[in-house]
Write a structure and sequence with these properties.
By secondary structure, this protein is of the alpha/beta class. The chain has eleven helices and twelve strands. It is globular, with a radius of gyration of 19 Å. Bound molecules: NADP nicotinamide-adenine-dinucleotide phosphate. The site of NADP nicotinamide-adenine-dinucleotide phosphate (NAP) has 25 residues, from helix 1 and helix 6.
């Protein structure tokens, strides 16, 4: 029988690859989106348009309890890549409360599996963003629904910030020796759906096929651009100072920087998967106006 899978965060970088992967594997896809028009346009950084990939559109606001109450009716599985990255909302309202409302709907409607995309090391990072995610992970783990919790490090989409600095001629790193294995959305989506369809509950740290130091990431960007390597090291205290100052004007931005700087100061390496390489990705985007 064809499985029906609900995807939250379907218009995001990762969510689009998840919808495409589910469609490729023959699932009926119900996609939660705020704007169908935006969903049909191509997504950022090679993530696909949802044209022809979605069987059932759920258009609305995930923060509206009436919209979410029966969103999981008739659904076998849920995959959530719903979370605040650059959006204006408070992460507590989306990463925690909206995901929890979807979970409650899934429980009421007898959904079998709930796959959630969290973040690697999230339970140790002091940012409010990751605390909201960790709170939802705790709710999910104590739910009666079988869950697959996936903890990735940074996506290729976020590594474009390194490419952007390299395009400007110099990359700034904090701890050049700290390691990360960034992952392409298509590779992560395939891993998530493998875990979902295997049906075993659990939690997995997963990243791309190659681990880099931050120094190595910067060198990779310069190599893709065929430009001389110019890297400067920033002292960690500068990040703390920037967070304190930013916190006065924009606590939300300060929290994002707190999250990003934590990732730059701690190894974020998961089980390697996939075959997309960062160098090829950077080469494809070397001429982009990032
Ligand atoms: N990017 C990374 O490097 C990275 C690394 C590890 C974990 N993660 C986590 O993985 C998940 C997906 O990341 P991503 O890079 O694909 O993020 P993304 O492109 O920003 O997508 C996030 C999704 O959540 C939705 N969303 C956010 N705020 C919303 C709001 N206020 N109301 C309704 N929908 C909202 C977005 O809808 P719209 O398209 O309508 O805005 C989008 O569908 C996130 O939970 C993120 O924290 C990301």
């Amino acid at each position: 029988m064809t499985a029906t899978t609900l995807v939250a965060g379907a218009t995001g970088y990762l969510g689009r690859f998840i919808v495409a992967e589910l469609h490729r594997r023959g699932h009926n896809v119900r996609a939660i989106v705020r704007s169908r028009e935006r969903a049909l346009a191509p997504g950022p950084w090679e993530s696909p348009s949802l044209e022809g990939l979605v069987d059932d559109w759920a258009v609305g606001a995930v923060s509206n309890p009436d919209f979410v109450a029966d969103i999981a009716e008739g659904v076998d599985n849920v995959v959530s890549a719903l979370g605040v990255t650059k959006q204006a909302a408070d992460p507590w309202d989306i990463d925690h409360k909206a995901n929890l409302a979807i979970l409650r709907s899934a429980e009421r409607h007898g959904v079998g599996q709930f796959c959630y995309i969290n973040v690697i090391g999230g339970d140790q990072c002091p940012a409010q963003l990751t605390q909201a995610k960790t709170a939802f992970v705790n709710d999910l783990r104590s739910s009666s629904i079988s869950s697959q919790i996936i903890n990735p490090p940074g996506y290729f989409s976020d590594m474009t910030e390194i490419l952007k600095m390299a395009q400007k001629g110099r990359v700034y790193v904090v701890r050049p020796d700290v390691r990360i294995n960034p992952i392409h959305g298509a590779d992560l989506a395939a891993y998530c759906i493998d875990r979902l369809t295997a049906g075993e509950p659990g939690m997995w740290d997963v990243g791309g096929p190659e681990a880099f130091t931050w120094q190595g990431l910067a060198e990779c960007a310069f190599r893709a651009l065929d430009r001389p390597v110019k890297i400067s090291k920033l002292p960690p205290w500068l990040l703390s100072a920037a967070i304190s100052v930013l916190n006065v004007f924009s606590p939300k931005k300060a929290d994002t920087v707190r999250f990003v700087s934590w990732s730059m100061l701690h190894d974020c390496v998961g089980e390697p998967t996939g075959n997309h390489t960062l160098l090829d990705f950077f080469k494809r985007h070397a001429e982009d106006n990032i």
